[in-house]
Amino acid sequence: MSAPRTVLAVIPARGGSKGVPGKNLAPVGGVPLVARAVRACLGARRVTHVAVSTDDPDIAAVAAGAGAEVVHRPDGLAGDTATSEAAVLHALDAHASRHGRPADVVLLVQCTSPFLTSGDVDGVTAEVLDHGADTALTVAPSHGFLWRHGAPADPAARDAVGVNHDKAHRPRRQDRSPEYLETGAAYAMDAAGFRARGHRFFGRTALVPTDPARVLEIDDPHDLARARALAPLLDPVDTPTRADVDAVVLDFDGTQTDDRVLIDSDGRELVAVHRGDGLGVAALRRAGLHLLILSTEKNPVVAARARKLHVPVLHGIDRKDAALKHWCEEYGVDPQRVLYAGNDVNDLPCLGLVGWPVAVADAHAAVRAAARAVTTARGGAGAVREIAAWLLGPGLDPTAHPPLPATRPRSPQGK
Question: Is the pTM of the predicted complex or chain greater than 0.85?
Fold first, then answer.
């Protein structure tokens, strides 16, 4: 009986990027671009192995955390002139060495296409694996009329020319066959043919149409801003469960409160909190999750609320991200399994550190764009209770979820 055919998805992700510095780690919908690509490939039924080819240790760490194998790219393949094909060929060799046999089909998947779906990946794979194509690519159907300038050197004398139509004849959309735009997101190739030709297109090429609304390549900061604005509309609703999270870290003002401050005649500041949030925190504590309140606010009301909830607190903190990173190291918590909930721009560095960045419903637009999940409740109006329901179920029953073993701060030798 022959061995099942293997399908290797290769995601090239260099560390250097001139158009958008750190592009491959830029979060869209709260998830770094490289991790989004890994998830799309891991979710594809036909893909057997996913590898990220990179020269950057931070990208390697995120890729491994997302579930990909890491192929460390040599310096000769890390410069601006290195081609994607060269990276794929190198990854094919690394895969054969690691697994003891060559891949049958290889995919080139670009993490700069943030809205690639697992269905798209399966689509190009199936064309090569099942339908006899040598190569396949994702495309977007288009009925657009394309134009170009005519040949004369004098701009005033140039006559615009129709590229895909006769400008004297304007057929109706329904009377025209669609043309297809290469999306740049995913390509599949017969691995042996790719090795022989060294290029992603050879033999018979199949087109796999995808939703034009999801087609976006990130080449400059404007593209990245558009992707972040579109993510809440195009990404599936993604909320964590208890199996995804080991720790919950909560901002205070605007997250556990409605961001208002009441001041009495003696200058004392008062805030309003939500009883449902207290119920949610108590349930999370009983479920064995690590909890922390982390705030820049120096007012003692933060510590008072933490004492009431029996939750550790760090407040009056200028660098919340540094404090969060140190706390994770001290308690041996993987940042990728931390849920951090915030509402304003001073939360952005923390959101970028964790695997589950969460914004409350009325958070600043930049915070909502950086979040992986957004509550339906506003800050101070049950948002924390809603987060607890994501993790424990609407009934907040911690007995349905095994508690984590108690963890003490690491000793200096363990750091």
Answer: no
